[in-house]
Amino acid sequence: MTEPRWIIHLPTTLTSRAAAAELATALARSLGHLDVVDFGETTLSEEDAQHLRHRVWCDVRLPDGGRCPLPDGHAGSCGATELRGHR
Fold first, then answer.
1. How many CB atoms lie within 10 A of CB 45?
2. DSSP of 55-81, one letter per residue?
3. Taking CA 78 as the corner, what is the angle to CA 83 and CA 29, rounded to the nearest 5 degrees?
4. d(CA 50, CA 28)
5. Helix (H, G, I), strand (E, B) or coil at 45
6. pLDDT band at 80 (very low <50, low <70, confident <90, very high)
7. Other Cβ atoms within 10 Å of 1 Cβ, number
8. CA distances, 59 to each of 11, 40, 49, 68 (Å)
9. Which of 7, 65, 69, 70 is the most buried (most CB within 10 A)?
10. pLDDT, average across residues 62-72
11. How far apart are CA 87 and CA 26, in angstroms?
């Protein structure tokens, strides 16, 4: 049996989903060198609806082992055209 992974919920004072996604991107770029953070799994939720989460990035696994860094629901093929700060 593997050890459980832990999630850090980081409340903000931001009032829009777009602004929260921008902050998530900034955090990924700033802390992307940390192997202990899986930014590809980043989700957003409203404070009073934390059960309803919105994925920030596409997160499809790429042939090189990385993940697609494009926004969730992007048009076109997955690929590494925008750095989000992680593998």
1. 14
2. ESB--PBPTTS-B--SBTT-SS---SS
3. 15
4. 21
5. strand
6. low
7. 3
8. 22, 5, 23, 5
9. 69
10. 86
11. 15
Instruction: Give yes or no for residue 59 having a pLDDT over 90.
Output: no
Q: How many Cα atoms occupy the beta-carbon half-sphere of 16 within 13 Å? A: 3
The total number of residues written for the chain in this structure: 87
Cβ atoms of residues 77 and 60 within 8 Å: no
CA distance 62 to 57: 13
Distance CA 30, CA 21 (A): 14
In the chain, the amino acid numbered 54 is H
End-to-end CA distance of the chain: 26
Q: What is the pLDDT of residue 82?
A: 53
pLDDT in tens, 8-51: 999 999 999 999 999 999 999 999 899 898 888 899 999 999 99
Q: Which uninterrupted H or E stretch holds 21?
A: helix 17-31
Query: Do the Cβ atoms of 17 and 54 come closer than 8 Å?
Result: yes
